């Protein structure tokens, strides 16, 4: 279901052991590869003292919590991720009868896609409370960590998720950026529960925060290292301004529409694929991301929105 094939985990050596930026996904192949890589530098899982997790998504958080539970390593996570973890705990207890993402899809006008997602749900793979355990340390606001001779600045960057953090080592000139700044793709926006009011607005504001830091080497959670955070932040901000213009043009041409209708007018991925070429999971992601763009246009006073049976509908003011 996931188009991405790998997640980058960064290892920092300190006087008392290792600090890892993110942990990876708790699946056998990821655990085996992380074990192999740690052994290649003369270390093992027992040497990990802390995980600084960028955000709550499973490919970053779940292996950290599993290994933290087994080996006593501290896990740190942004406190704004707590509502998402509470939802996952309810799902683990079978208190949720359906995925909370289905309602988000319906508000985007994508009820048929929601039905496809619901039909593909696997009750045998419900979340476990070990994988989605609450962290040992909740991060609130910005703060710093001492890792050996390094000072790591934890900077709150909501948008991709509400509790996303990046970690800057300004002395070494590097930014561990998680999914906030990716070198070749744009992180998903709006794919989070509980839904937030302005995920794209928060994301763009967080990009501006990173732009105010010194220009650092970009160490992303997916993709290759890149030389300049400033250059990539500028590209991402320009991309989303273009998408906002395209979304507004779609509403102007069509009248009163849902996010799904607008998403069908847009190109997707770096290859500008048509919406109909996407698989159902990616179509749902596209509808939710388009809704985030339309909601920001509402906040800017360019569109109006109303809730209807078919979802939230938008029109030009």
Automatic annotation (TrEMBL):
SMART domains: Lactamase_B. Residues 6-222 form the Metallo-beta-lactamase domain. Gene3D superfamilies: Ribonuclease Z/Hydroxyacylglutathione hydrolase-like (3.60.15.10). InterPro entries: Metallo-B-lactamas (IPR001279), RibonucZ/Hydroxyglut_hydro (IPR036866), Sec-metab_biosynth-thioest (IPR050662). This is MBL fold metallo-hydrolase. It comes from Nocardioides faecalis.
């Amino acid at each position: 279901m996931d188009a991405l094939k790998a997640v980058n985990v960064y290892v920092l050596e300190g006087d008392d052991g290792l600090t890892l930026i993110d942990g990876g996904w708790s699946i056998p192949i990821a655990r085996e590869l992380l074990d192999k890589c740690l052994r290649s530098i003369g270390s093992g899982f027992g040497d990990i003292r802390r995980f600084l997790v960028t955000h709550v998504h499973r490919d970053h958080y779940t292996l950290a919590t599993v290994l933290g539970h087994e080996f006593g390593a501290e896990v740190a996570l942004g406190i704004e991720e707590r509502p998402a973890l509470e939802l996952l705990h309810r799902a683990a207890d079978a208190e949720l009868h359906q995925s909370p993402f289905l309602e988000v899809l319906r508000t985007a006008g994508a009820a048929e896609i929601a039905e496809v997602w619901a039909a593909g749900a696997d009750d045998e793979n419900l979340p476990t409370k070990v994988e989605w355990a609450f962290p040992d340390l909740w991060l609130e606001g910005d703060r710093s960590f001492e890792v050996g001779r390094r000072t790591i600045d934890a900077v709150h960057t909501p948008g991709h998720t509400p509790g996303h953090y990046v970690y800057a080592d300004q002395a070494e000139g590097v930014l561990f950026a998680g999914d906030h700044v990716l070198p070749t793709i744009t992180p998903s926006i709006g794919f989070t529960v509980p839904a937030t009011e302005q995920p794209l607005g928060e994301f763009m504001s967080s990009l501006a925060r990173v732009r105010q830091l010194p220009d650092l080497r970009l160490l992303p959670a997916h993709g290759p290292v890149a030389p300049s955070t400033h250059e990539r932040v500028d590209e991402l901000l320009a991309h989303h301004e273009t998408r906002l213009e395209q979304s507004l043009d779609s509403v102007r041409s069509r009248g009163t529409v849902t996010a799904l209708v607008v998403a069908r007018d847009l190109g997707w991925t770096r290859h500008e694929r048509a919406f109909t070429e996407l698989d159902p999971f990616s179509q749902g992601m596209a509808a939710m991301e388009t809704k985030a763009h339309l909601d920001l246009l509402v906040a800017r006073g360019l569109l109006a929105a109303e809730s209807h049976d078919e979802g939230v509908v938008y029109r030009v003011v």
